[in-house]
């Protein structure tokens, strides 16, 4: 369990990046941090992994103050995948880069090799162990960066805009991989993104931020059910929810809920059709 307790952060030049954020991330959930550029998402991720220190407030991990943890313990529990993999990858080859984290944990060569192989298998990079980093495609670099974090076997993985720069196929692949890691290993996932369409498909919970403040948090249907709040954070509704909003407000369809997925929209539309047929039959 990660708890943010009235967390605030101000950069040295005076920018107030976070203001009194209080939020809990229960173990094993898949979270999205949503908001426009400059809302504080990346700053929050850097605070969670100890790259920045809170100006005020606290980050508690299972009740312990994050700032009191030693680096080795912190990085073995929480780790961050940067937005640009080129900022994270630095070793000569893929295998060397993935092995770097476990090596710094002081593990045995046998354990380091086992973790490296396992992580590369999970991200689909088996066979590329000796490939120079600079020869990888952008998508492969993203997977290599994720493998380096997986090799640390953290309890929580943070990702800053993990789909940035990927084509639709690559976006679905990386998000599906993260969901699989979350479900199969019980690893908590927290992604910072502005892609609202991904949230209903992959995430259990969502937090909406604006100018360093937390506006709302909860399951996606609850949060996006308040379209005014979402738009106030300079976010649009997920496309399915936007379509249902138009059908309800402009075409008068009597929906009882505002689904976010194609499957949910299909069910809701069928219910409207069935109610219409029943009403017509009774008349």
From TrEMBL:
GO terms for molecular function: ATP binding; ATP hydrolysis activity; ATPase-coupled transmembrane transporter activity. Belongs to the ABC transporter superfamily. It holds the Pfam family ABC_tran. InterPro entries: AAA+_ATPase, ABC_transporter-like_ATP-bd, ABC_transporter-like_CS, ABC_transpr_CbiO/EcfA_su, Co_trans_ATP-bd, ECF_ABC_transporter_ATP-bd, P-loop_NTPase. GO terms for biological process: cobalt ion transport. It comes from the Bacteria. Probably part of an ABC transporter complex. Responsible for energy coupling to the transport system. GO terms for cellular component: ATP-binding cassette (ABC) transporter complex. The keyword Cell membrane applies. The lineage of its organism: Bacteria, Bacillati, Chloroflexota, Dehalococcoidia, Dehalococcoidales. Residues 2-236 form the ABC transporter domain. Keywords: ATP-binding, Cell membrane, Membrane, Nucleotide-binding, Translocase, Transport. The keyword Transport applies. PROSITE patterns: ABC_TRANSPORTER_1 (PS00211), ABC_TRANSPORTER_2 (PS50893). This is ABC transporter ATP-binding protein. CDD domains: ABC_cobalt_CbiO_domain1. It is a peripheral membrane protein. It is found in: Cell membrane.
């Amino acid at each position: 369990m990660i708890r943010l307790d009235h967390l605030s952060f101000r950069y040295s030049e005076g920018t107030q990046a976070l203001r009194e954020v209080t939020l809990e991330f229960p173990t094993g959930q898949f979270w999205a941090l949503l908001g426009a550029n400059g809302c504080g998402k990346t700053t929050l991720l850097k605070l969670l992994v100890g790259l920045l220190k809170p100006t005020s407030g606290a980050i508690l991990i299972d009740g312990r103050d994050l700032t009191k943890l030693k680096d080795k313990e912190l990085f073995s529990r929480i780790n961050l995948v940067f937005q640009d993999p080129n900022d994270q990858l630095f070793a000569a080859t893929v295998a060397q880069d993935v092995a770097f984290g476990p090596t710094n944990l002081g593990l045995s060569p046998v354990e380091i090799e086992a973790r490296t192989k396992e992580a590369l298998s999970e991200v689909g990079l088996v066979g590329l162990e000796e490939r120079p980093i600079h020869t990888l495609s952008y998508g492969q670099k993203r997977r290599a960066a994720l493998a380096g974090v997986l090799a640390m076997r953290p309890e929580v993985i943070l990702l800053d805009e993990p789909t940035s720069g990927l084509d639709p196929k690559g976006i679905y692949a990386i998000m599906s991989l993260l969901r699989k890691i979350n479900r199969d290993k019980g690893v908590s996932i927290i992604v910072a993104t502005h892609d609202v369409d991904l949230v209903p498909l992959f995430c259990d919970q969502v937090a909406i931020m604006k100018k360093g403040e937390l506006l709302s948090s909860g399951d996606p249907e609850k949060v996006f059910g308040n379209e005014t709040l979402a738009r106030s954070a300079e976010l649009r509704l997920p496309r399915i929810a936007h379509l249902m909003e138009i059908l309800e407000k402009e075409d008068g369809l009597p929906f009882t809920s505002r689904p976010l997925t194609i499957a949910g929209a299909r069910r809701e539309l069928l219910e409207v059709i069935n109610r219409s047929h029943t009403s017509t039959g009774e008349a």
